[in-house]
Amino acid sequence: MAYKKFAVSPGFQEGGSLFKPEQLAILGSIVGDDAKIELTTFKQLYVEMQDDRIDTVQVQLKEAGLDIQPAGFYTKNLITCNFCRGADDAGLNVAVQLDQAIVGQEVPSPLKIGYAGCALGTSEPLLKDIAVVKMNDVYDIYVGGEAKGIKARLGQLYASGIPEDRIIPLVTRLIAIFQELGKKKEKFSRFVERLTIAELQHMTACGNG
Questions:
Q1: CATH topology of domain 79-206
Q2: CATH number assigned to the domain covering 3-70
Q3: pLDDT per position as a tens digit, 1-31
Q4: Is the pLDDT of residue 88 over 90?
Q5: Is the pTM of this model over 0.85?
Q6: Do residues 132 and 113 make contact, with C-beta atoms less than 8 angstroms apart?
Q7: Domain coordinates in residue numbering, the chain
Q8: What residues does the Nitrite/sulphite reductase 4Fe-4S domain cover (predicted)?
């Protein structure tokens, strides 16, 4: 029997992208005892189960309010803080729209994008491939963070003082450049190092790539 893997996330709410107990209970009851569930570092659960049941199971999970995405070399769901400053001050609406714009796109290497509603950065956004940090009424974007290995590093400042309506165009443009110019299995942090911040800034400013 063939097995296949897919990703499950809880969606957004004030309080962050957290699984509710009832969602986990539903997940376990629907996928069955023969499925394998893996906890990832990007707030998704990977479910591996029999291929012939996946379509039916995914419909049931969506009906339970869970978000279904492909597993593997794709952009992951937005990794957020817990919006402790409140939905409006922390930009929950922006995070929801950004997640919808970026998730599930095929990329050379799995891409993790972080969001923080203030400079405290409790979601550790600067350790993600791309980071969006709300700074009062504008946003800063960082690129090239790396959380794993002996070469772990913080992301570099790519753009600052960005208004709300420019966040999604800039982030999706960065993803498009990575899709076009990234090498197979090349981590985004190495991609940024290879192209340089200056070149990325130029390409997104002029619209060429």
A1: Sulfite Reductase Hemoprotein; domain 1 (3.30.413)
A2: 3.30.70
A3: 688 899 999 877 655 677 888 889 989 998 8
A4: no
A5: yes
A6: yes
A7: 3-70, 79-206
A8: 103-201
